[in-house]
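Action item from last meeting closed. Structure (271 res):
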């Protein structure tokens, strides 16, 4: 019985030969053993980077929790990088087999937009304003990204080039989908540049960050993985730079940065 995916197995995490073991580009014996602790090593496995002091502290808390549930770090890395969302127990939680999922006690949510809105409402966060019209503009921006921009940008341009499960079964099919995504994404980026951000505002709905910026920036930043050039859309680039300058962008995006480093030699079709 076949266990795992068909085809040649590849990894960007670690390799081994007669001379030694290499983990994320570092020699296990000379670079890591005796220098990194257990938590730092786990973070390196997942992201390709070593953690900051704050990241190490919170990851320590996580590791204690998951170890109590039988998930040792190497198993957890494998689950996070090998499609665990297509396996039990995750698919019982979210039959869509997609991430993220929010759990608050026995309560669960499975859609990114709803997941952002729920804690914002629960904690009365200013990023989701109570004023009816201001909130309506936040909802409008989030819906626009989910129903228009994300379809072409994510599922036709970025994902088919980044994730094997999204790659089309034939070279011709892959070429058609990616070229379609490239063409249509240019249209939506122009709308974002000229309409949503055309008046020079720093954030999507005005002078303050909202959960619309949190959702949208995570989608637009996908383009960095395929090395998409946003310089043709200066308002978009300026807005994304504003969001990336926020205090928690680095820690939140650490895993994405690690993934980007693991595919730095890969070639992409991008604008």
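Sequence:
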């Amino acid at each position: 019985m076949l266990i795992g995916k068909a085809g040649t197995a590849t990894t960007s995490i670690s390799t081994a030969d007669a001379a030694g073991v290499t983990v994320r580009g570092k020699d296990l014996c000379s670079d890591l053993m005796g220098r990194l602790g257990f938590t730092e090593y786990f973070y390196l496995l997942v992201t390709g980077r070593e953690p900051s002091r704050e990241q190490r502290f919170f990851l320590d808390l996580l590791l204690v929790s998951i170890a109590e549930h039988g998930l040792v770090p190497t198993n957890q890395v494998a689950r996070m990088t090998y499609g665990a969302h297509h396996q039990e127990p995750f698919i019982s939680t979210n039959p869509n087999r997609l991430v993220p999922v929010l759990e608050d006690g026995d309560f669960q949510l499975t859609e990114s937009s709803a997941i952002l809105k729920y804690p914002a409402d629960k904690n009365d966060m200013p990023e989701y304003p109570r004023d009816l019209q201001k909130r309506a503009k936040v909802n409008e921006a989030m819906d626009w990204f989910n129903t228009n921009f994300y379809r072409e940008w994510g599922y036709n341009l970025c994902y088919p080039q980044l994730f094997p499960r999204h790659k089309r079964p034939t070279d011709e099919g892959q070429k058609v989908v990616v070229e379609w995504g490239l063409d249509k994404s240019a249209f939506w980026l122009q709308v974002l540049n000229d309409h949503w951000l055309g008046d020079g505002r720093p954030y999507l709905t005005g002078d303050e960050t909202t959960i619309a910026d949190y959702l949208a920036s995570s989608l637009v930043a996908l383009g960095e993985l395929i090395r998409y050039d946003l310089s043709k859309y200066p308002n978009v680039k300026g807005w994304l730079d504003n969001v990336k300058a926020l205090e928690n962008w680095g820690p939140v995006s650490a895993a994405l940065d690690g993934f980007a480093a693991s595919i730095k030699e890969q070639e992409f079709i991008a604008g």
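Note appended to the action item: The longest helix spans residues 132-162.
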